[in-house]
Write a structure and sequence with these properties.
The complex is a heterodimer of chains A (388) and B (725). With 388 residues, chain A is mainly alpha-helical. Chain A has helices spanning 2-7, 12-34, 42-64, 66-71, 73-90, 118-134, 147-161, 166-183, 187-206, 212-223, 229-233, 237-247, 260-263, 275-308, 312-337, 354-372; strands at residues 108-111, 114-117. In chain A, helix 5 packs parallel to helix 7 (147-161). Chain B is α+β, with helices and mostly antiparallel strands and 725 residues long. In chain B, helix 15 runs antiparallel to helix 22 (555-570), helix 17 runs parallel beside helix 22 (555-570) and helix 18 packs across helix 20 (500-507). Chains A and B meet through helix 8, helix 11, helix 12, helix 14 and helix 15 of A and helix 1, helix 2 and helix 4 of B.
Chain lengths: 388, 725
Amino acid sequence: MREWMRAIPPLGWPVLLAALTLTLLGLLGIYSAEAGLEGPPRVTMRQFMFLSIGLGGFFAVQVIGYRELGRWSYILFFVTLAALGALLVARYVPMSPVIVARRNAYRWITIGPMTFQVSEYAKVSFILALAYYLRYRTNYRSIGGLLMPFILTLVPLGMILKEPDLGTSLLLLPTLFVMLYVAGAKNRHLIVILTLGAIAVPVFYFSPLMNPYQRQRIQSLFHQDQTDTNWRLNAGYQLNQSKIAIGSGGVAGQGFQQSAFFRHNLLPEEHNDFIFAVVAHQWGFLGALFVVTLYLAIIATGLTIASATNDPLGRLLAVGVCAVICSQTIINIGMTIGLMPITGMSLPFVSAGGSGLISNYLALGLLVSVARRRPVDMAPKPFEFDDA
Amino acid sequence: MFERRLRVVLTIPVLCGLVMLARLYRLQIVERDDYRDSAAAALIAPRRYLPPLRGAILDRYGQVLVSDEPAYDLTVDYGALEANDDFVEDYALEIRRTEPDWRDAEPQALRVEATDRLDAFYDRLAELSETPVDDLLVRRDQIVASVQNLREYIWRHRPENERKTFDEFRIREQNMQHALMRDVAPGARARIEMALRDLPFVRIEPSVRRVWHDRAQAFCHLLGRIGQVSSERIETDPRIDDSLAHYRAGDLAGVSGAELLAEESLRGVRGFEERDLDMRVVEHVDPIDGNDVRLTIDLELQQQIAGILMDAVTEDPNRTGASCVVIDTATREVLAMVSVPTYSLDTFRDHYAELRDDTRFRPLLFRAVAEEYQPGSIMKPVSLLAGFRYGLVDPSATTFCDGSYKDDSRHWHCWTYWRHLPGHGAVNAEQAIQHSCNIYFYSLGERVNAHRLTSFYSDFVLGPPQSATDHRGTGLIEERNGIIPTQEWIFERRGRGYRIADGRNYAIGQGELQITPLQAANMYATLATGRFQEPTIVANDARERLAREIPGLRTSSINTARRGLFRCVNEEGGTAERTAKMDNIVVCGKTGSAQCVSRAIRSAYTFDVGGGEQRTITAPTIEAARAALPGGVDATLVRRKIIERWPPPREKEKTPPPHAWFAAYAPYKKPRVSLALVIEHGGSGGQVAAPVGRKVIQAILDSPHNYFGMETRPSLVSADAEDPA
């Protein structure tokens, strides 16, 4: 046991403990939402199992080390793309029982008893591959050099989008941006691309590429403060219920109990996408504050890790992991409080769901693995004296 | 640079975190109470309303005529009836949520399933309840149309600044359950409830139905009916601010007769029950039943008089109906208000078209208050009093009647002329009434003139104006006020001024003058007491009904008329003496044979059926004609030609038989009760109406309630003591 503990570098502890705390809060929330139903708390137990697997993966990554994984990054990325490709093809060529559609979405590959949500793992392999790609280059400082990173991003993005899984696909873009930014891409290039993106959004919004119900989700954001019972019962139901759950949490929450609100299924998707509402309901504003702080701790520590190392792959990897965790958290929490449109995105480390949890702990493993590597001292640091 | 950029990157999550915390602060701290309330409210199932019982309508002595009985309605959520997209979507989600088989289905498949189930529901219900599915669909369409009409009505009447767009505007009734089938048979109820329990939008809810008791058939016109409240009525409801008491779409309220008249007393207040999602009761408010309303009408008397009248009508095929009204002179409470023929209240709806098309007997007509007849000779005591009023009559002065006289244009006859009898000779006021001498009254009418006559009639029949109340009569919606042909009325309707002939006609109760049987009975009550007062049919009537003096009339004048009435019934030569005089009570009254016209009972209706074509249908009513014509509802009427009238004219006189009237009060010395009865086309008042009047008075005498206040009957002492309010 001590061995394992020593394996974790000093900077790795805040990250791991924060993540574990979040997962614990998630377990409490899931249990509370589940306990009123009949039978054993299955989702809670499964989540616990996923946590174990995730921690196992975490430590495995420590053992292998990020650099070794980096050498495999392209292969892993290719495997991921192949899996995504299989999902796309499965729409036209039946591949059950390996690939089965749920609600007309092809997102999962089943091998034996295990089901993998490919897009979650794709996030991780994407970051690894992108970091590996960029690590020694400098050509991204020119416009032409930005092309390849974008292609590297847009290919998986498009494939994930087609599953369909709008939410996860969107995560790749901010991650790309942040990684390019810290890698040193020129400001003006990035600004131009951002501006183009900003223009593309309304175009996309009004184009036929967007489903009516997707548009409705965005419209819901603007509607939400009107006292329109029609909206509250229909289009805005989920958001409204989420706000009620969160708002009724008050300062210190309703406590850990089987809240009647969840017992009667008044909040849809309370296990995964809206788990934050459950936590906020149980622990109140203070609890929500604590959760936000935990995520900030992870990100801040992650960025410190990036700063502390001087290995380029490590730097980019750390930043990439932080970016993806940060984006997902912002979108998910924003969704539950009515600042973001509702997309099917879960909360990292907290939401129920095997692939999400495991892939997040894998990413965390990469991050901590970066922290393990101490920079090679080329010169003694100043103000270091031998005598105590 | 890397470090710097790292710091820049770090600001993003920090900023976002602050924004989120600000938002959370707002939700969880600032608006916490609102959300706590919402959370609590979300845990409560929608209110179920508990219907109140509507008050019963009772007769004078508390016997139930019509009352509510518990029943069950099958109600459907409005969204399901309208089957709009929102509802289908919700239902689809509900199916997914509650049925494991559908958990992974695609949205479109779910929507199709929801729609299918919705459509199938009507077929299932039709089979379970053994009703034709088309009836259910028609009923569904009616409900949807009525809610949409109400929605439009309310939207148009809201002030500008409250308006949203019409599409967004929703009314409460769009979120309610509505009764698709009322009064589900008890045997079927459990079966239907079990069979349809899988459908969340269907409920069997407790309700009430209105039941007429068998004994109430003689009251069929008087009781009236309940029906769905109209949009206007909802909006003008006096109780609109009371959330439990006001009308909602689909509520039933009185629309005619006593049900309408006493609506404010009969209607109750809803209760409700709120349960939380664990089925525990959160709040329960009992409904408040409506108050029973007691009429002033005596059930036994009403039934007996109905029988007596019906016998009289069936004696002769010319007779098409009859009516009798009996009034307590002191309180002007109506003791009986009969109109025959009657109809069965239970089967009314099924037979409506037949009843409507029976133009000969007009069973739906509430003759007692809604049909206006020429009064004929029963008006004579009143025209006599008009003469006294204007100082134009000396009680002892006589007029000579030799059967007829001639003026410039035509002959005027006394009724003796038609019977080939000699004239009455010299008659004074009392004798003129006793013998019902037309000549005396033509002369009187000429002297008083039409203008003063009608003015006096207004005072006497409709009430003196100086203390006019805001109501007239009993308040029934069917009630008509007769026709007192004032100068303005003649101008408007006949386009001429008064002629001398009018004065003569009005004095004998002919011409344009018309009154209802209720007015006739009340008129004789006024003769009996000397004061005018509005009648009433509800016990403890809250309206102010002052008894007012007739202006310009002295008691001595009235007494002259009264003596005339006494002689008419009790002295030889009186037109009612042989037929209405009674041994056990002294009755004062007057006969009348009112000339009248026949009525159309069948016509040829010519319609424009389009394409330049016309079709003619012979039918009793235009509705029956339209029913017989394919597409007749929309066809325009081009021409109507009357084919048959009833009764046919008599051979000799060339006119149909006159209406036979008898109006009276009793006892002579201390009047307590007045009555008026008319037998349509009965013929002679003396020969036909007066005997019927006698039977009616006998029936009143036989009643255990001693309406005449007689002291000579042995059982009276106790009867008096029990005299009910």
